[in-house]
Write a structure and sequence with these properties.
The protein is of the alpha/beta class. It has one domain (4-126): 3-Layer(aba) Sandwich (Rossmann fold), CATH 3.40.50.620. 43% of the residues lie in helices and 19% in strands. The protein starts with a strand and ends with a helix. The structure holds coenzyme A (COA). Coenzyme A (COA) is lined by residues 8-10, 12, 15, 17-18, 21, 37, 40, 42, 74-75, 90, 92, 103, 106-107, 121, 125, 128-131.
């Protein structure tokens, strides 16, 4: 499917940094599919796949050409199952480059058709990550400038449990 791109990630939880990439990708491509990985190697999730999906869906409700799907296993298999060969990832800093470079090349090795496109993250969010959001909230800091209100509410509820 040309003009369709996959934006994969863990989204634990979605932040304004992710939303910025989604917004910009949706302006360029006809369709954006957000692929939320259910259980990657990364562990210690705060949110279940259902909770992560719900937050992403709320975040994109005003985007007409963006939809969400969950997946397990290899990204290239997910992409193949959708008939899509484009992937977008955000680059926040030079430190992201090596990891992203390795991931893009591995995906290409696994499936030559797959192309990864990188977008420079808006500098406003270049320091931001889901872990930063969780850490700030854990120590009582205000996360309202990093995530939408409905995400902040869920993070806060999680902390109360
Ligand atoms: N703004 C702010 N933060 C951003 C961001 C942006 N634009 N883009 C990424 N981040 C942050 C995320 O919040 C996340 O933070 P955290 O580590 O604190 O949780 C971090 O960067 C990592 O990003 P994420 O998008 O969650 O990616 P990931 O590195 O966990 O990779 C997949 C997710 C799905 C792409 C990857 O795990 C994958 O492809 N898995 C399938 C297995 C596979 O195919 N492997 C072969 C390829 S190596």
């Amino acid at each position: 499917m040309k003009n369709t791109i996959i934006y994969p990630g863990t989204f634990d939880p979605i932040t304004y940094g992710h939303i910025d990439i989604i917004h910009r990708a949706a302006n360029i491509f006809e369709k954006v599919i957000i692929g939320i990985i259910e259980s990657p190697l990364k562990t210690n999730f705060w949110f279940s796949i259902g909770e992560r999906r719900e937050m992403v869906e709320l975040a994109i409700k005003d985007f007409k050409n963006v939809r969400v799907q969950t997946f397990n296993g290899l990204l290239v298999d997910f992409a193949k199952s959708l008939g899509v060969n484009l992937v977008v990832r955000g680059l926040r800093a030079i430190t992201d480059f090596e990891y992203e470079f390795q991931m893009a090349l591995t995906n290409k090795k696994l499936e030559d058709e797959i192309e990864t496109i990188f977008m420079m993250t808006n500098e406003k969010y270049s320091y931001l990550s889901s872990s930063v959001v969780k850490e700030i909230s854990k120590f009582g800091g205000d996360i309202s400038q990093f995530v939408p209100e409905f995400v902040a509410d869920r993070v806060f509820k999680k902390l109360q449990k």
